[in-house]
User: Fold these one by one.
Assistant:
Number 1:
Amino acid sequence: EGLVAVELDFKWGFMDSRGNEVIPCKYDYAEDFSEGLAAVVLDDKWGFIDDDGEWAINAQFSSARPFNEEGLAIVASGGKYGVIDTDGDWVINPQFEDFYGFNEGFSVF
């Protein structure tokens, strides 16, 4: 979505297509942007940032996967998996031991 996750000196950030660092390399890990948000890790907690590097959904999860095209992301909290929307609201409360993903609107637990 215009920015790509990069690692520099064991920290992750984002560069544009010209190689300019747009979001500083300060995260412990980062996924590429999806649905306008990127999943990042800071101090062992996952959250989501926007393309300005601002927290859209605060770092609060023990794991997170990128948002799918339906605007849903699988996250873990309290040792259980659930699903949030791009506002950070629970669509499916964390209640599952594992969550494998979505396929054509259906989920696999």
Number 2:
Amino acid sequence: MKKLQDHGSCFVCGKTNPNTLGMEWYLDDKNQIDACFIFTTHHQGPPGFVHGGASAAVLDEAMGLAIWYAGYRVVTVNLNLDYRKPVPLGEPIQIIGAMCGKTKRRVEATGKMVLPDGTVAVFAKGV
């Protein structure tokens, strides 16, 4: 896997942003984006769990990166999330993004947040 550069002042991964989430992204040999991240109380929504907006932000970024590294310069038009299980704080969570389709005017991607036991806690699909 290849470690990707941060994006300056990006909210999710920027090193120059004092309020960044601090994600570090990797690109695998299938052009899939991958990260392992431990969310803290700074990312809390319900007590002990990650805020849904933080989940949406990291999945949007992972899916967008997968599309950018596939060579398409796009922005998110639509993002749908399926919150299947609460994402706990303090545990390593795997975040994955992948491009899954392209038509003449649309590029589609999926993303997921995976718990340590392999359960998909949050699934996303976007255009």
Number 3:
Amino acid sequence: MTFWLTVAGMVAVTFGSRLAGLSLRAPLPPFWLRFLHFVPIAVFAALVTPSLAGGRGEGEIRVVAAGIAALAAWRFKNLGLAIGAGLVAFWLLRIPFP
């Protein structure tokens, strides 16, 4: 019972805040527009960071690939390009060299 009450509370808060924001129809101040601009990259970083330790001895490779992705994100300001650069770097760094 507690689980479903928690889920119902989360649904009410999530959709209630969205409904309130949509019903106001007021333009956002510049501060909030700048703030919301960084939400996608912050969420992506929060999802990726815990897996950087890696398994099978790939920790260093993952950190280097994440660094390359961060540089691509900083340079090109494009999240999709940053993800692609990080993936390509990860795959290339995993190739064993004789």
Number 4:
Amino acid sequence: VSRVLAAEKLFAEGTRETLEHAEAIAKQIRVLGHIPQLKIELDLRGGPTNLQEALAEMLEVERQALDAYKEVLPRVTDDQMLEDFIRKQISVETEHVQEIASLLE
């Protein structure tokens, strides 16, 4: 039961944080003088699932986000503010991956 409650809390926080991250990234894009464009490339199967499968899917989404931030980092090293922002996001996503992975153990 405690694992289920922890997972429910994680799903709720994940939804909220996803929106916060999207808003923060859009703000950074606007600061750079560009217009944010949405392009999501996730491969999720959807449909009914159990807790283990839902956590595994959530872990994959977080890993994809972490990989995306790591891919962007070398391209922003000439902008200290943007580099700091991306490094913070890498730290946040790393924490999420570790937290979800621990629930899957």
